[in-house]
Design goal:
mainly alpha
Length: about 230
């Protein structure tokens, strides 16, 4: 009977030792895991593509966004811009006018125009007809500034007809102008005001401009946005 009890005790001790070793092995395994390299995270390409579709991230130069705006909002913005420009713009020699609109109304449209004046008025007409008077004057002042700069031809017509400068010039010619339209009358008046330094533009000294819906990436000093154009120098 004692031999059986002794054998059972030995067997029990063996089981206890095995259990202890098992616990020790688990502890060792956990400690050994601390020395193993960190796990690499692998992302399923399908999940990445799905995430990109949900929230795209764009790096690099910010691009201009073109929005479709209702016509009534455009007209309201045009009138507001013109009113603000008239209120804030400083005049040069305005003949007593208190707004650019009033000064335009004071201009005489009788008689023929010189070649230089036709070039300037034509540029105002094709580049900015339908925009505010301040926007039209800004275009005229760019042409004037170019003619005064050594970087461009020294005449208004030379500036206007310089190759690859104004998109409305086709085959070295200016398109036909409806000279009975109010847009032409405004363009002539604005050209005369610009030629006589009659009203200061917010972009005095600007030599370049482009439409708001394009982004040429020019490395130039941006001066202002007026109506549909952004002006630089």
């Amino acid at each position: 009977m004692s031999k059986i009890f002794k054998a059972a005790s030995v067997l029990s001790l063996a089981f206890s030792t095995a259990a202890a070793l098992a616990v020790t092995d688990v502890s060792f395994a956990l400690e050994a895991a601390d020395d193993t390299p960190e796990a690499q995270i692998v992302i399923d390409p399908d999940m990445l593509e799905s995430a990109n579709d949900a929230a795209p991230v764009i790096f690099g130069e910010q691009q201009e966004v073109v929005a479709v705006i209702p016509q009534d909002m455009i007209e309201a913005d045009r009138l507001a811009n013109e009113e603000q420009a008239s209120a804030e713009t400083v005049d040069f020699n305005n003949d007593g006018a208190t707004s650019l609109r009033q000064l335009v109304g004071q201009q005489s449209l009788e008689g023929s125009l010189s070649k230089e004046m036709q070039c300037l008025a034509g540029t105002v007409y094709f580049e900015s007809k339908g925009e505010t008077l301040a926007g039209q004057l800004a275009v005229a002042r760019v042409v004037m500034a170019r003619a005064a700069s050594s970087r461009f031809p020294n005449s208004l017509c030379g500036v206007v007809y310089q190759r690859k400068q104004f998109s409305f010039i086709r085959g070295g010619k200016m398109p036909r102008i409806d000279k009975g339209h109010r847009h032409w009358r405004n363009a002539v008046a604005i050209a005369k005001i610009a030629m006589n330094d009659g009203w200061k533009s917010p972009v005095e000294g600007a030599l370049f401009f482009h439409a708001r819906y394009v982004s040429p990436g020019w490395r130039l000093k941006r001066m202002a946005t007026i109506d549909n154009h952004i002006f630089y120098r």
